[in-house]
Amino acid sequence: xxxxxxxxxxxxxxxxxxxxxxxxxxxxxxxxxxxxxxxxxxxxxxxxxxxxxxxxxxxxxxxxxxxxxxxxxxxxxxxxxxxxxxxxxxxxxxxxxxxxxxxxxxxxxxxxxxxxxxxxxxxxxxxxxxxxxxxxxxxxxxxxxxxxxxxxxxxxxxxxxxx
Length: 163
Hints:
CATH topology: Four Helix Bundle (Hemerythrin (Met), subunit A)
Strand content: under 5%
Distance between the termini: 9 Å
Shape: globular
Structural class: mainly alpha
Radius of gyration: 17 Å
CATH architecture: Up-down Bundle
CATH class: Mainly Alpha
Order of helices and strands: HHHHH
């Protein structure tokens, strides 16, 4: 952001609407009827459950890394701090990464077009949240631009913001 640009603000209602959508798509991934896009067997179930567990571990590690700064809303806490270490040294939004990995595991288990569509919708919501959140983080923390230039958004090295 430039010094002349007005600070970007997302309304609390819109922020919580995005959080709600995120949970709707996660719930759909867990409860949609299974399909037959690919054969499901023990190997598929193990792979899917492994991805679900990995996603949970990533998201929990990221939440723990934020400590008191953690909020489900994309609106950063006014008294928060910019965390750039731990999993945040690898990606800027590791909780979202964890949720997407968890979602891929549910897609593998579910094997349906509806699961794939719900995962793409979840990806869209999380990318929207990330973009709004990044604008506000850049307004709140002078070091955010340098951090975003060197650390990927959801995958290490991918989605860096060039100054």
